[in-house]
Amino acid sequence: MKEQILIFGLGHIGGSIAKSLCKQGIKVYAEDLSKKTITYAIKNKIIKGTFSNLDLSKPYSVIFSTPPIVTNKLVNENKDLIKNAVLFTETSSSKNKIKKNAFINKIENAILSHPIAGNEGSGIDASDIKLFENKICILSPLKMTSKNSITKAQKLWGSLGSNCIKMDLNSHDKILAATSHLPHVISFSLMRYIEKSSNIKNKVLMGGGLKDFTRISSSDPEMWSDIFDLNKKEILKSIKGFKKELEVMEKNILSSRSKTKNLIAESNKARKKIID
Amino acid sequence: MKEQILIFGLGHIGGSIAKSLCKQGIKVYAEDLSKKTITYAIKNKIIKGTFSNLDLSKPYSVIFSTPPIVTNKLVNENKDLIKNAVLFTETSSSKNKIKKNAFINKIENAILSHPIAGNEGSGIDASDIKLFENKICILSPLKMTSKNSITKAQKLWGSLGSNCIKMDLNSHDKILAATSHLPHVISFSLMRYIEKSSNIKNKVLMGGGLKDFTRISSSDPEMWSDIFDLNKKEILKSIKGFKKELEVMEKNILSSRSKTKNLIAESNKARKKIID
Fold this sequence. Notes:
2 copies of one chain form a homodimer. Helices cover 53% and strands 12% of the residues of chain A. Chain A is an alpha/beta fold. Chain A has 2 domains: 4-167, NAD(P)-binding Rossmann-like Domain (Rossmann fold, 3-Layer(aba) Sandwich), CATH 3.40.50.720; 172-274, 6-phosphogluconate dehydrogenase C-terminal like domain (6-phosphogluconate dehydrogenase C-terminal fold, Orthogonal Bundle). Chain A has a 7-stranded mixed sheet. In chain A, strand 6, helix 7 and strand 7 form a beta-alpha-beta unit. In chain A, helix 8 (169-197) packs across helix 11 and helix 11 runs antiparallel to helix 12. The mean pLDDT of chain A is 89. Chains A and B meet through helix 8, helix 9, helix 10, helix 11 and helix 12 of A and helix 8, helix 9, helix 10, helix 11 and helix 12 of B.
């Protein structure tokens, strides 16, 4: 990764990429809607400068860490910049709208990245130099993506400490609906239920379990309403599937302690298989 | 807390109480179904001995950290031991069955304790000397509970580092259904859904969010099927209430990005109010 990097969007993800690459001595340039963010990033040596400082005669890669809707707009506005890049990628959690961008599908240096990292934080203040270390990054090549671009993307994420796996976009959106988007829907709903139902006027009754369990309900409304909208079809399927499992639990809690116990034991096993 | 302490059940909670009190120089004795646990606890100076070592001619307190059903049985079998104690308490998450024990209701030294601490671990291996530090402990006095016993219980939990709040048993079971039991039902259901729905054969796709979110789905089946059974009425009410909120999210994800955004913002606020 000797070339220059241009990042659009210096939020939690973009900022963390910038911090890590800059530390490695790579020339990182960035654009962000907020001038304050850019000033902060330059002052704190998170980036070297802005787009205007990029040397277009030398190799560069472009990373979009903007919300998906913004990314589509910016991609259309910066076609030449992207075409001439060594690598073009973006980092959002929902890909199907971006995939439909005909331009992206036609360029050979495009690959979609989804780092399975990040937390409920947002903005450059929440960025973290170690955010991607030992995390998975899903790489989704498009129709025309060259092998060379895949290798370059693997090197980029590798230099950030991530392990890459390749996955087609449909599988990506389906799996993420179940493992990431659905838990967010649940956490938002649970938090609203707890607030409405209980006469809890203070903070005293939240054990560590609930604290962890509702951590993601602090996630950014702008970003998550976007993700829910962009991956609507798969998310609604997931909610339906989850509700069925919830109803199985409900029935057994009502009628059978021993069956409930078996269901819980199955959950224990499932988690061990998938996570531990 | 100069007197002796007798603990029934040296699991995650009982073991943690023993560790902390023993460290403070208090004479802790314990009984557990597992001889291995008792041997381990004596060897590691978590307890000083068993029931047979307790000096019945000197003051002692009795703590039950056994599953609620076992506690009821043991209480009936050890009426004199309990009556003669300075303080009698128990630490389970669901109280309504214990409350109905007529004997407990008639003795003046009884108070029900619920430390809002603990995690998905179980057994003495998961015990932790600092488990109760800076945690809340809910104290639920019964009909006849004397002020003296309340003070003693406050001192006991205070010495473990907890802050006590008093709450009647009905409120306890209602609030815990929403803030602890429901999140467990959800986590168990979600884990089962994820395992069934996704063709995830490995561990790669679980971000930190899901890891935290499903941590409690590793909780003990025996204990949690008991809790669900004991607090059935309130838990089923909570599931119904949660499902309504989930359906509000579902509808808005389908039809309105801006309303979804507002719902998420409300969740953010609710969490901040309750937890941060």
